[in-house]
Amino acid sequence: MRITTGQLRQLIRERLLSESRYFGMSVNDVLSYLEGFGNNTWIFFDTETTGLPGKEVYEGQLTSIGAVALNPKNWDGDPQILGEFNEMVEINPEVEARRVEQDANPDPERSSRAWTISQALTNTGYHEWEGEYLDEQVVISNFINFVNSFPDPVLVAQNASFDMQWIFARSETALKRYPVIDTMRIMQYFLIPLLRALQQSSSTDDDAARLLSKLRRGKYYTTSLGKVAAAYGISIQNWHRALDDAKMLMQLFQHVVQTLRSGADVDIGPEHAEAVKGIRDRQRGNR
Questions:
Q1: Which whole number is the average pLDDT over 145-149?
Q2: Quick check: 30 and 194 in contact, CB under 8 A?
């Protein structure tokens, strides 16, 4: 039986509480936190879906899940790849009917951030898939079996709450709880503040200035996977394909860890506090 609305809300609350562990941490603190998973198998994963969280997790569905399992070897050199997962979901009749309805009756008030179902399928390469399209429950079950095939898995995703909400909401069976690392929060609370602190403390820190200039969006800095990867010179070809995104994130996170290590002793207190406040303010504004 699928997760209820109340259970989904509880999951979100738990996710917010787990994110709060990052509040007030120094760069050294978060590095120590990440090193605490040194004996775990890291599962970088990504989901593609037909909509945003909320009621759309019940009206829509997952369209693909991609993952790469690895031993990061403490991010000293290249990680050891242990396995890959990549499966596509067959669109069910109810979602297909909604897709046809959306195409026939466009909503002029729809947010530009919210793809229609047709846009989601096109932009994620759904129709380019050359393999078999499987039932959604089969794909979820296969993904969980993939995760459980490795010792002490920790799930790693960009904006992990999005992916976890969809997997929990769409699964018809009870799922185990796994440790989860949200790389977006690491970037928001530590990478961006560190780059800002480095730029402010030294006008000669060209790397920090270069990265920040590429990530600046008005008065904020983006932590979009493709944008940060491109800023580090990582290829973003096939961005929004689940397995490609998981691999891209794996490469990016190695760079992020190295950047954090290079500034491990830098005081990011003011910048960190500003980042936390900014994210909380934006979250309140979206309610």
A1: 97
A2: no
Q: Which helix (H) or strand (E) holds 87?
A: strand 80-89
- Distance between CA atoms of residues 226 and 110, nearest Å: 23
**pLDDT bracket for residue 2 (50, 70, 90):** low
pTM of the predicted model as reported, rounded to 2 decimal places: 0.91
> What is the spatial distance between Cα 272 and Cα 251, in angstroms, rounded to a whole number?
24
User: Residue for token digits 């992916």?
Assistant: 163
Cross-strand partners of 155 = 43, 180
CATH number belonging to domain 5-285: 3.30.420.10
- Closest by alpha carbon to 272, among 190, 184, 216? 190
What type of residue is 226? Answer: G
All residues at 6 or more sequence positions from 47 whose CB lies less than 8 Å from its CB, including other chains: 62, 64, 65, 162, 163, 166, 167, 242
